[in-house]
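Appendix B. Raw example, untouched.
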Amino acid sequence: MTSAWMVGLEILCKCRHNFQKTGITWGLFLSPESLSGAVQRLYNADFFLEDISGLDSENGLVAVYHLSAYSSPDRVALYVIVPQDDPQIPSISAVYSGARWHERETSDFFGIQFTGHPDPKPLLLPEDMTDHPLIKGDKNRAPLKDLLDPGEIVERDPGFLFFEEVDSSTEESKPEGQ
């Protein structure tokens, strides 16, 4: 059963999780453009923001948001994937003021820029530091499918292929002439 706050959201991938196993009920992959609407709906449905963090993967930088309901055991993970060379996501601090701290910390460590943040200066690192300590080198990045268990994929945009298995029998591996 889909929760009322989810109806009509622009979701790239909707995943149902086993709460007893993962502590999460739903995992939603969103575009940066649909994040604000989803967060506003969660706020209106009496969810509170637990944390924001990041993940550096072969497929891009991922901002991870955990939100929990005040009156039920529902816990939601929102994932927003952005390219390493232009990691910009709208700030949600206008909805959840506590996001200000989390966004600054995530920016410090992963280099994700939260556009519209009221005070984007570094939180924990020196202001003149240009490196981001949790960014991996290209050789050390793993694909998203190896880093996250999506649970049961309930709905997916046809272009969202991050959890697809790669077919090892590609055209390149076929003998010539076939």
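End of appendix B.
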